[in-house]
Amino acid sequence: MSIKENLNHIKNTFSSPDCLLIAVSKTKPVSAIKEAYDAGIRDFGENKVQEMAEKAPQLPDDIRWHMIGHLQRNKVKFISPFVYLIHGVDSLRLLEQINKEGQKADRVISCLLQIHIAKEETKFGLDEQELKEILLGDAIRKMDHIHIGGFMGMATYTEDTDTIREEFSYLRTLMDQFKLDSLPQQVNLKELSMGMSADYLIAQEEGSTMVRIGSAIFGARDTN
Fold first, then answer.
1. For 3-14, what is the HEC assignment?
2. CB 175 within 8 A of CB 183
3. pTM confidence score
4. CATH number where 76 lies
5. Any idea what DSSP says for residue 185?
6. Residues 141-171: pLDDT tens digits?
7. Using only C-alpha atoms, what is the Rg of the chain?
8. CB of 36 within 8 A of CB of 10?
9. Whole domain around residue 48: which residue ranges?
10. Distance from C-alpha of 54 to C-alpha of 203, rounded to nearest angstrom
11. Across-strand partners of 22?
């Protein structure tokens, strides 16, 4: 099927019509992104700073670029002028760097805090204590160029749907708990970025507001 046909198929399976579809375009050529754009997609996810920075100028200005991969502090400056949402903030030091680069670019940069929900140790993310220290600590209250809009999580890579559901449910519950706290003005917990090609239906059932889908749209990942 074509990219447009894949997109129509995916949208028809959505159980939550308000859930945002982010087309994960990492390793894909500009021509494939343009095909998805012409089919109505405006949100694209990349996991490498250099790739995003190279693609963005070649494509329409109304594309919303999502940084979904692990972000190194020394790379923030390359996307800070234009990135729409950074999904994978997994440390206070990274958040401080994003705030610094946001100040230089004279804009508030929207972020999600990445929470470690999987049983796999290789996944990045904050634990509950680290999350608490960021959201309820003093440092974030001094940051005028970041906005925390919610959480992001990656489930265990498994065919065990009960495990996946449990992990997504945990993330939703965790966000609900933090909503009860007195949070700084830089924080407004609304978004749950969880779910990819293999588990986005479960993620939606567990409250996801945005899913990151690549291979189901563009086909198998290109290696380079």
1. HHHHHHHHHHHC
2. no
3. 0.95
4. 3.20.20.10
5. T
6. 999 999 999 999 999 999 999 999 999 999 9
7. 17
8. no
9. 3-218
10. 31
11. 212
